[in-house]
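Quick one, tokens below. Sequence please?
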């Protein structure tokens, strides 16, 4: 092969590699580093921790979430819909007193249903739904993670005495409530006073 052909081959290879790398570099420019940290807040740090401190891997995951779900537009809930879900949340709180595990499972399903009603991926695809929620509700999405984890643990341990303690289940529901309020109230409207308050925080529910 002549020297000219070798040079031409090298140039073509460099151009191909540059073209392949360009979308990745553009993605990091739009979403990476401080931009991702600002957008995801505490979820950024949690994702880094889940990747054992590998910031690069965590940022790739978060950037992919933004690419997939950043354009999602939430569907509004009408008044009847908000009242329906508020009633279901009230039932969750009432059930917690006698059956914390049942209440956590109900809260997990309720968040999945509300998110689907708002236009997020169906709750049967938890990982995908969670990823989409994290892009638009980063401050409170960890509540969904906690309640889903505790609900799954409760389902696995239903036939034993093992599983999450009452305090852990209560903490999970408190976190879930924050995301629930985000999803069921119009932008700028807070959830205080709209649902039955977390009045049983100081009660001692059964462990059943």
């Amino acid at each position: 092969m002549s020297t000219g052909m070798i040079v031409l081959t090298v140039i073509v290879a460099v151009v191909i590699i540059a073209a392949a790398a360009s979308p990745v570099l553009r993605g990091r420019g739009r979403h990476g580093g401080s931009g991702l940290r600002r957008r995801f807040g505490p979820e950024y740090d949690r994702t880094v921790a889940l990747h054992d401190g590998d910031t690069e891997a965590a940022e790739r995951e978060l950037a992919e979430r933004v690419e997939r779900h950043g354009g999602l537009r939430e569907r509004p809930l009408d008044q009847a819909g908000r009242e329906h879900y508020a009633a279901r949340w009230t039932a969750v709180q009432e059930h917690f007193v006698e059956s914390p595990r049942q209440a956590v499972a109900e809260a997990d399903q309720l968040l999945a249903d509300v998110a689907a009603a708002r236009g997020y991926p169906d709750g049967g695809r938890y990982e995908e739904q969670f990823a989409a929620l994290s892009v638009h509700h980063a401050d409170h999405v960890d509540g969904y993670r906690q309640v889903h984890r505790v609900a799954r643990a409760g389902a696995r341990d239903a036939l034993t005495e093992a599983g999450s303690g009452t305090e852990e289940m209560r903490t999970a529901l408190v976190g879930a409530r924050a995301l629930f309020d985000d999803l069921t109230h119009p932008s700028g409207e807070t959830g205080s006073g709209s649902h039955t308050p977390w009045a049983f925080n100081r009660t001692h529910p059964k462990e059943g």
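The radius of gyration is 22 Å. Residues 18-31, 190-208 have pLDDT under 50 and may be disordered.
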